[in-house]
Amino acid sequence: MAIILGIDPGSRKCGYGLIAAQGQRLEYLACGIIRVESLPFNERLQVLFEQLSTLIAEFNPQEAAVEEVFVGKSAASALKLGHARGAAILACTQYKLPIHEYATRKIKQTVTGTGGAEKAQMQHMIKTLLKLSDVPSEDAADALSVAVCHAHTTNALVRMAGVKGSRRGRLL
Known about the structure:
Layout: E1 2-8, E2 13-22, E3 25-35, H1 41-59, E4 63-67, H2 75-94, E5 99-102, H3 104-112, H4 119-129, H5 138-161, E6 166-167, E7 170-171
Parallel strand pairs: 1-4, 4-5
Antiparallel strand pairs: 1-2, 2-3, 6-7
């Protein structure tokens, strides 16, 4: 089974989700939020990097999936989000994890069937897909959604390519 780390980066809080995937079968491992809103910005990035590094060392995922930056109304917010993504990507790179990036619409489309899904729909689908007893928080559900999106995308590519599977981001 491949362990996938999903990351929903943020400059104030960062969602993470870990799943194990084998073919169509998905198994929930862990999820949560790294909260850094009370720290100065440079320390937020350091804490994100350190805590994600700790998670990677603990769970030993084979791949990471990160949500792409969504540029909304504020360019300043997008830049801060980019810095947070950089800290997350660096933590993954430190452990030589292949990193896959997905647009928000692609993640929503893969998980719910519609690219315009609301947060509550995403949370409900993640609860259902991973057979969770409780609905995860928005950020944790988003991170699990990124991991599920990657698992389904990789599985579809494997089927189309007619190969046995993938390991560390490479088709076998």
